[in-house]
Amino acid sequence: MSNSNEKTLTLPKRHRKASLDAKKARAGYLFVLPFLIGILFVYLPILIDSITYSFSNFIIEINEQGTPERVLEFVGFDHYNYAFTTSPDFVGKLVSGLQNLIFEVPAIIIFSLFIAVVLNQKMLGRAVFRAIFFVPVIIATGIMESLGDNMATQATQSSVEAGGAAAESATQTDGAEQTGGAQIISMLDVQALFANMKVGQELVTYVVDLVNNIYNIINYSGVQMLIFLAGLQSISPQIYEACKIDGATGWETFWKVTFPMISPMILVNAVYTVIDSFTRTSNVTMTYISGEVGRNLGQGSAMYWIYFLSVILIIALVGAIMSSFIFYQRRD
Predict the structure, then answer these.
(1) pLDDT for 138
(2) 3-state SS, residue 73
(3) Which DSSP string do the residues of 30-71 spell out, in sequence order?
(4) 74 with 51: CB under 8 angstroms?
(5) What is the C-alpha separation between 215 and 22, in angstroms, rounded?
(6) Which residues contact 237 (CB under 8 A, 6 or more apart)?
(7) DSSP 246
(8) Is the CB of residue 320 less than 8 Å from the CB of residue 267?
């Protein structure tokens, strides 16, 4: 028997080193930290004020010093009722924004995926082509967009002044003048192409609008294209080699391997495109609500929150629909 008074030796505890996943998680939180600080100390107070304004009216009162000051008067859901029942254009603008969303999102996703697949191939000047497709994203942001709009406005005014007489005579001779995408439709004659095909008029209208809007689709596809490229490059080349050995065609490889592997990126791009479409300055709903804010801050704030909740609802709907088709690779 061992002596009960014998002392047992205790080894010092060794601190386990953090795993690679834990280190990545810490780095991720570190990168997100500035954004979280901005949310808490900058955006959150603004959101609270916006909610307060949507339920209140500004009234002018004379304080004890005899100077006028603005005071908030609680009015409940009056501004929300105004947006749905009294405002003549808000509901129409909101529906128009939703229609544009249904048109733009599939077109942008399909186009950016197609370009990403093409640019992912090994070819000469691949980096240059990637930069070319991403240039519109840089041009369409911030001060560059303002400069571009000013230059386009000045160029339009100059062309109108210089060619006013010619345009007027052309209008009298040829009827309505066709510009931009209408000229593309005139050249391709999409409607005549579908005339003998037994398809619905809705499909013809969608294709025509798609061709007319091809310039904007290219401009709005830069970020989505980069996300798809990142997803394509994360697919192991060994999977494609196995497909070649099994005799799979390129078409089969795309639908059986590439498409499922980048399906999470499709969901990410769909959510991003929905948000980008709703928050774009050219959006008809955003333009209308901005004008309402200038006239009545309370009514405009209520419209903004209705618009925000509509965006959240659509994002949740898109996520719920696409989540059933998403393939996540297991990493054991």
Answers:
(1) 65
(2) strand
(3) HHHHHHHHHIIIIIHHHHHHHHHHHTEEEEEEE-TTS-EEEE
(4) no
(5) 44
(6) none
(7) T
(8) no
CA–CA distance, 299 with 151 (Å, rounded to integer):
35
Q: Which residues contact 155 (CB under 8 A, 6 or more apart)?
A: none
43 to 35, 46, 293: CA distances (angstroms): 10, 5, 18
Note the pLDDT of residue 121. Answer: 81
Q: Compute φ and ψ for 213, nearest 5 degrees.
A: -100, 20
Q: What is this structure's pTM? A: 0.67
Closest CA to 111 of 210, 251, 194, 257: 210
- Quick one: tokens of 83? 């947006």
What are the structure tokens assigned to 120, written together? 């992912």
Q: How far is CA 201 from the centre of its chain?
A: 28
Nearest Cα neighbor of 127 from 227, 229, 214, 221 is 229
Backbone angles phi, psi at 131, to 5 degrees: -65, -40
Backbone phi, psi, residue 281, to 5°? -65, -25
**What value, to the nearest 5°, has the Cα angle with vertex 301 and ends 216 and 72?**
160
In sign, the C-alpha dihedral spanning 243, 246, 251, 255 is negative
Rg of the chain on CA atoms, in Å: 29
Which residues of the chain, if any, have pLDDT below 70? 1-18, 60-64, 66, 68, 133-134, 136-212, 329-332
Residue 71: its pLDDT value, please? 75
Q: Which residue bears the tokens 């060619």?
A: 163
Angstrom distance (rounded) from CA 240 to CA 243: 5
pLDDT given at position 37:
92
